[in-house]
Structures are given as structure tokens and as C-alpha cells.
Amino acid sequence: MSTRAIDRYAYAHDASHYLLIPNEVIKAEDTDHVERKLREAFASGVPITFRSGGTSLSGQAVTDSLMIDTRAHFKKIEVLDNGARVRVQPGATVREVNTRLARFGYKLGPDPASEAACTIGGVIANNSSGMVCGTEFNTYKTLESVVLVFANGARINTADKDADNQLKSKLPELYEMMVRLRDRIHSQPHVVEEIKRQFSIKNTMGYGVNAFLDFTSPIDIITHLIIGSEGTLAFVAEATFRTVPIKPHVATSLLVFDSLQQATFSLSQLVESGLAAIELLDSTSLKVAQLDPKAPSELQDIQVKSHSALLVEFQELNQETLKARIDGAQELLRKTYCVKPSTIS
Ligand SMILES: Cc1cc2nc3c(=O)[nH]c(=O)nc-3n(C[C@H](O)[C@H](O)[C@H](O)COP(=O)(O)OP(=O)(O)OC[C@H]3O[C@@H](n4cnc5c(N)ncnc54)[C@H](O)[C@@H]3O)c2cc1C
Question: Which of 197, 214, 246 is at the close of a domain?
């Protein structure tokens, strides 16, 4: 535990513009340590904020109260079923986990661009995702189980067969609340429809409330509500994920359009073509990218006025499937507003 100014100021920022100086900083040594601190803080009413990679962009990892660093001593990674599953502690970075999985031909589904620094705890609590995972391979879809430590210190492994009963006996109020909220949502068709609408697209804002529609038992609901909870519901002490196969055959292209509108009009056709990643660059982004001395000539040569571009990528398991994708895309590109038929390679 530290109340030294140097430690408190070192934790006063995450990657956002917020500045909050914690009163006290603790580097948790293990889950028992976190559990003890949660019990003490619960009894005295002191708010706690967990901090892992500290790459949050909206102040999720800063506080003016008690900060618990849960990165340094939570690095264990256990590859299961030849890489088809992985059990990890929350301080392991996405890159560390993927490096361990690579030799088995697998990776995590969630793929935030901050993968070198962001950790499993942060990915779950922020519901972080990236260019490729979409709504199919995000944490909600790939998380199998978690070990949770709640505010009163109660610990539950959601993989245990009797986990729902454990929740009922250790946290009866929370259990009842899950049941009440679930039933209340189900009794209001317009709320059900609104949740379905919001989660039919990529939606990483706040608690995974679609859990109330997708699951029945309170333990399954809470397991998925944790995703996006920003450390407010429980400490994630361990997580087991189903992984996704690495698709090593890739083809990439920069598709240039006269305007932002034309780029976005072409999107639905491009999505249907099976592209794994599509990233929009508006004219300002293009101009900034051109400043990079390593920018390729296709990018340097654009006389940017109101242009926009889509950086696209196919990812496939084998060369034949990739070739079929590329052949199909050439035809498709002729039908879009793309100003020069770009080669995908
Ligand atoms: C350059 C850059 C690129 C980025 N790219 C992306 C991107 O592509 N996609 C994306 O979604 N986000 C992106 N982010 C945002 C950020 O990196 C992610 O949200 C990341 O997953 C946060 O992880 P972290 O380990 O840094 O968590 P932190 O910032 O340390 O914490 C995030 C939240 O999780 C809570 N928390 C941490 N550990 C635990 C735990 N064990 N139990 C319970 N709660 C916990 C914290 O209290 C906090 O609320 C980017 C950020 C940067 C700086």
C-alpha cells in the first residue's frame, strides 16, 4: 500500500484526458489480497477502482479514492484443449495471450488495437473489441466462465456446477435483483425490443444488458453483465475464453472514393463480400497518413480534396478461399463508387 505522492501521481492518468489523484495505491499480490481489500472497503464504504493496463480512453481507470493495481501479479496464462480454449489471469495483455496461442493456430476473439498494453481484465470490463471481432467473436460470445470476487468479498467460479446456488447463498440480494430485473424486462415488450435493437449492432456501451434476454439463471446473467461493467460489479480474478482460429491468408487494399458519402454508400455491398476488416479514413485522416514517410505510393499519390478511403482486408484459412474472395471482390468493386478499381493483394 502506498500514499506516497510519487505513486499517487503516477496513477493519476489513464489514456483519457481525465486527471484524478488516488488517495492510496495498492499493488494487489493475489486474489486473496484483492478479496481482503474489498471486504475492508465494503465495511468502511471506501470506493475502489481497479486498474490494469491503464489504456482506457474515458477515465475508467482513474479515481480520487483507493486504486488497486491488478496487473503486475495476475499474469498467468494456461492454454487448454490445444489452444481451443485459454484460461488467463486479468493482468495478462492480449498480446501475451495471443503469443502463447499462436503456435496452436488460435487467438482471442476480442482484438483491440491497444493489444500490446491492454489486459484481459480491461478487455472484459470495458467490453473492448477491434476491427475484426465484430459481434460474433467479442467477449460476450467467447467468454466461457469467470472467477468473480464481489464487493463483500464473496468469490464465485461461474464454471462450478453449483455456481447459481453459490450466488443465491453468498449474495441473496444480488440474486433476487437479477431475478426481478430479468422478469421486469421480459414483462415489457417495448424494452425487450429496444435491447434487441441496440445489441443487433456492435454495442460496447455499458453493461451487457442483453444478458437478461439471452440467459435465464442469475449466475449466467451476472457473468455476462460483467462485460462492460468497468469494474463496478465485481473483480474478475480469472477468465476462460473459447478462442478463434487464426486466418493466416490475408489480402489488403485501400479503396479510394471521391467523398465520405460515396464511401459509406458502398459499405453494405463491401460487408456482404465477406471482408474481415473495413476501416474508414476521412480526408483529414488521409492527409495525416500521407505525412508518414513510410506511407505507400498508393496513399501518397492521392490528391486529397474531399476524398475518403476504406482500408479493407480479407482473412481466410487457406489460399484457395482467399483467391475466391479476391476474384469475387474485383467484380464487386466495379459496382461501387470506388474511383479507381484497386488491386486487392
Ligand atoms: C492507442 C489505443 C488504442 C485503443 N484501441 C482500442 C480498440 O481498438 N478497441 C477498444 O475497444 N478499445 C481500444 N482502446 C481502449 C482500451 O485500450 C481498452 O478498453 C482496453 O481493453 C482497456 O484495458 P486495460 O487493461 O488498459 O484496462 P484499464 O484501462 O486499466 O481498465 C479498464 C476498466 O477495467 C476495469 N478493470 C481492470 N481490470 C479489472 C478486473 N480484473 N476486474 C474488474 N474490472 C477491471 C478498470 O477498473 C476500468 O474500469 C484503445 C486505447 C488506446 C490508448
Answer: 246
User: If you measure from the C-alpha of residue 95 to the centroid of ligand 1, how many angstroms do you get, rounded to a whole number?
Assistant: 13
Q: By residue range, what is the domain housing residue 297? A: 249-335
- The reply to whether 345 falls in a domain is no
Whole-model pTM: value is: 0.93
What is the distance in A from the centroid of ligand 1 to the CA of 58? 10
Read off the pLDDT of residues 309-333 as tens digits, 9 standing for 90 and up. 999 999 999 999 999 998 888 777 7
Q: What is the pLDDT of residues 13-60, one digit of tens each?
A: 999 999 999 999 999 999 999 999 999 999 999 999 999 999 999 999
Burial of 187 by CB count in 10 Å (0-12 exposed, 13-18 middle, 19+ buried)?
exposed
| Cβ 121 under 6 angstroms from ligand 1 | yes
Q: Which atom of ligand 1 is nearest to the CA of 129?
A: 11
Half-sphere exposure of 41 (CA within 13 A, CB side): 20
